[in-house]
Design brief:
single chain; 358 residues; alpha+beta; 11-stranded antiparallel β-sheet; 3-stranded antiparallel β-sheet; 16 strands; EC 2.7.7.12; UDP-glucose:hexose-1-phosphate uridylyltransferase activity; metal-binding; Galactose-1-phosphate uridylyltransferase
Length: 358
């Protein structure tokens, strides 16, 4: 079903996604919000790396660890207290009040010499997984988790070919150790005006692989992981979850569809159901690793059906900085300054442990 649409007091979009039999009932947002500034962020080009840097100074004012009774993601039936003015909701998506990217405009320009900058046009959205303040994605009922996937899919469809958007990125940061400042279970969606550095590198590698070998890099890697078997965490008829051969993070799992697809839009209904099941399975294994919930980042790698992104293969990369029950992996000099990752555990040992938690 199509989402129920509403507007927040400053004109931002708000979309309610409902389970069968539920009818969203948004109320008027009556908060005295300041007018939005379409020029609140900028892109600056780093000539030494060939990468864009987003400068979004207004994010310094974003909500920081509010008490539970002041959470802006909980339902706000009065229309005076919340980003979600409604008595309840299942899944909701809205434009971020403190976006890294905002406003309609062209994609990032082709950079020249010297100091190059451009408006930080793009889209940043928040996805609330549930109206419940406590809990996590892993604790959602399957039908509810599938609704979140449908919200991701809907927003991907709206943004992937939008003018000025080069990449759609759905993601979740979970846990204060990761840097989360709002504990209400939620994720985000970014519509970037350029290809992110990691995506650009992976696509270049995939293009080179196709020219040399004639196949798809990601499909060939998946086939090798399945043939090896030692790093497989879970495998179904439709999806495979595995710890990659060259994992960077103490806990890292990738989830691939067993057939080629560039994005959520290219998966059928049965595949979307299967994706939801294996995604929940992996997250629930994460939560069983230690007494405390595992902090993690979930990154959905999606690609447009364009010639430039033709070699992209939809997959999810899940990663955690927790390297033991009471130790975190800090990205210090080698990782942060040199982008040279050093792993403290073997991928095979991590995969073995996660398999045992099924």
């Amino acid at each position: 079903m199509a989402p129920t649409r509403a507007k927040l007091a400053d004109g931002r979009d708000l979309l309610f996604f409902a389970l069968p039999g539920h009818r969203p009932a948004p109320v008027t947002d009556r908060r005295p919000l300041p007018a939005r500034d379409p020029d609140q962020s900028w892109l600056r080009y780093d000539q030494t790396t060939g990468q864009w840097v987003i400068v979004a100074a207004r994010r310094q004012d974003r909500t920081y660890k509010p008490p539970p009774d002041q959470c802006p993601l909980c339902p706000g039936p009065t229309g005076l207290t919340s980003e979600v003015p409604a008595p309840d909701y299942d899944v909701v998506v809205f434009e971020n009040q403190f976006p890294s990217l905002s406003g309609d405009g062209p994609a990032a320009p082709v950079p020249g010499d010297g100091f190059v900058s451009a408006p930080g046009h793009g889209r940043c959205e928040v996805v609330c997984f549930s109206s419940a303040h406590t809990g996590s994605f892993a604790g959602l009922e399957p039908a509810h988790a599938r609704l979140v996937v449908e919200a991701w899919r809907h927003r991907t469809a709206d943004l992937i070919h939008a003018p000025g958007i080069e990449q759609v990125f759905c993601f979740e940061n979970r846990g204060e150790e990761i840097g989360v400042t709002l504990t209400h279970p939620h994720g985000q969606i970014y519509g970037y005006p350029y290809l992110t550095p990691r995506t650009a590198v992976m696509l270049a590698r995939a293009r080179e692989h196709r020219m040399r070998h004639g196949g798809n890099l990601f499909a060939d890697l998946l086939a090798r992981e399945v043939a090896d078997g030692g790093r497989i965490v879970a495998r179904t008829e439709l999806f495979t979850a595995f710890v990659p051969f060259a994992a960077r993070w103490p806990v890292e799992v990738h989830i691939y569809p067993n057939r080629f697809a560039r994005n959520l839009l290219e998966l059928g209904e049965e595949e979307l159901d299967g994706f939801t099941r294996i995604y929940l399975d992996v997250l629930q294994r994460f939560d069983r690793m230690y007494e405390a919930p595992l902090p993690y980042i979930s990154a959905l790698h999606q690609y447009a059906d364009t010639e430039a992104q033709a070699d992209g293969y939809f997959h999810v990369e899940l990663m955690s900085i927790r390297r033991s029950a009471d130790k975190l992996k800090y990205l210090a000099a080698s990782e942060s300054a040199m982008d040279a990752f050093i792993s403290d555990v073997t991928p095979e040992d991590v995969a073995r442990r996660l398999r045992g938690l099924g």
